[in-house]
Amino acid sequence: MMTPLRPRTVLVTGATGFVGSAIVRALRQHGTEVVGLVRDAKKAAWIEALGARIAVGDMLAPDSYTPLIPDVDAVIQAAQYGTTGRFTRKTAKEINYADETMSLALARACIAHGKRLLQLRRPWHRMDHRRDLVHPITARCGAHEGRDRTAAAP
Fold it and tell me: Could you tell me the CATH number of the domain that includes residue 97?
């Protein structure tokens, strides 16, 4: 059974980042309960000040965030792997590995618990080879139209 179309509680990964923080603010302004997943709780005091809850997690450690899935209605994946220094092929591989690790773990957990997942994807990261878990859908698709959102794309 899928969750309602208008989520009551949303898990936002990367909640202190550029995109994630804007999502947290917008959701809270509209009265949505938010769980903000962050790397560093010290940088997230403002999230609690908005009335949201924080959870600390690591993109490379799915056990640090997948247990949160049953308690939310939807997940917005806005996390970005933190790197320093020059952007190199090695850095790109590290970012892609972290992004795919989190994306697959979230997709599996959301499918298992019937939750919605909005995946904000990086321009250099593609998961076309994982059609069994992630596929493009429009905002109008969903359980309310009799479609199985967990079905693999053709």
Answer: 3.40.50.720
Structure tokens at 144: 């309310």
Task: Report the domain count for the chain.
Answer: 1
The amino acid at 32:
T
Task: Kindly report the number of other CB atoms within 10 A of residue 102's CB atom.
Answer: 26
The pLDDT value recorded for residue 33 is 95
| 22 to 30, 54, 123, 142: CA distances (angstroms) | 13, 15, 20, 26
Mean pLDDT of 71-87: 90
> Quick one: average pLDDT of 63-79?
96
151 within some domain: no
User: Does residue 5 surpass a pLDDT of 70?
Assistant: no
Q: Say what the pLDDT of residue 86 is.
A: 85
For residue 127, what pLDDT is reported? 46
Whether residue 150 is contained in a domain is answered as: no
Indicate whether 74 belongs to any domain. Answer: yes
